[in-house]
Amino acid sequence: MNAASASPVFALPGPLALDSGGVLEGAEIAYQTYGKLAPDATNAVLVCHALTGDQHVASPHPVTGKPGWWERMVGPGKPVDTDRYFVICANVIGSCMGSTGPASLAPDGAPYAMRFPVITIRDMVRGVIALLDGLEIERLHAVIGGSMGGMQALSLAANWPTRAERVMVIASTARHSAQNIAFHEVGRQAIMADPAWGEGSYYASDERPDNGLAVARMAAHITYLSEAGLTAKFGRRLQDRPDGSAGTKSFGFDADFQVESYLRYQGSGFTRRFDANSYLYITRAMDYFDLAEEHGGRLADAFDGARARFCLVSFDTDWLYPTNESRHVVHALNAAGAKVSFVELAAPHGHDSFLLEHEQLDRVVRGFVE
Hints:
The structure is a single chain. This protein has 2 domains: 9-176 and 290-369, Alpha/Beta hydrolase fold, catalytic domain (Rossmann fold), CATH 3.40.50.1820; 181-276, Rna Polymerase Sigma Factor, Chain: A (Orthogonal Bundle). Helix content is 33%, strand content 14%. It is α/β, with parallel strands linked by helices and 370 residues long. It is built from 11 helices and 12 strands. The strands form 3 sheets. An 8-stranded mixed β-sheet has the order 1-4-8-5-9-10-11-12, sandwiched between helices. Strands 2-3 form a two-stranded antiparallel sheet.
């Protein structure tokens, strides 16, 4: 049990081969499970987390104490019903909640830091496949993922086509656009420009690159929202001042506007639970992800011989991974002869809509999983 993750930890029985050509020795995967595995192991559902997520999909976070990031979706009687299904959620390789990542100790006893090997989405899924083998789960009833979790679900379906009966991809894409990469680079540069980053070797120091990481989180968080959602929630409303004055300007660089205060809160809270180097590595893995390129340049070829049923879901206000990205995947699946359904849902909250209350999404998830 890893104290930082408060989760079971699976030690891979051998080296983890990486797309870079290297290997990761002694890798570990932290994970959580919910429900009971059937005797024939046919009721397993894998939930894959997004960039800043973790294995605590339906249980309190050990650092923040907040509810699991998809507690509204996973649990007894919920769309992913743990009275019926054995749900697994694993922290990806490269992250910082118990799985091997830049903060982990290298064979020489010092943290990897920037010596950690460059990883890809497919490398993350290789780690999860090793975990499933360790749990003796040969075929998943379903794999579900939103955002980066959707990338993992697609990678699993393309590279391990016999391992899942159903594949659900929510608010995701088969490759990053130049705009996606650009936003990630702004965040990475904010971290690396923080004097406390120290070329990534900050683990022995009392100072962490929290300022840079907070800015990276603020910039990314804007892409998770929608303009209409921000306007409805904040508009141009001013902050109430500590002296009791309501909605007044400071004429300085304090958080005058409510939206400024909200973003600063998001940034500062994030540094409590996430590692800056992990953010660098995981965003780079997302940027490298290109499922078509992995399979000769044609996306349909990635799903050649796919046996699973697919369901893709997008949201009409998601400008990070807009609906046309999901349609691109659907067209490739159709070209490959795969069984696929697709729905675009209306929601005011942008990319983050899959994490928030949405009755139609609940019905889609429940219907597909069942």
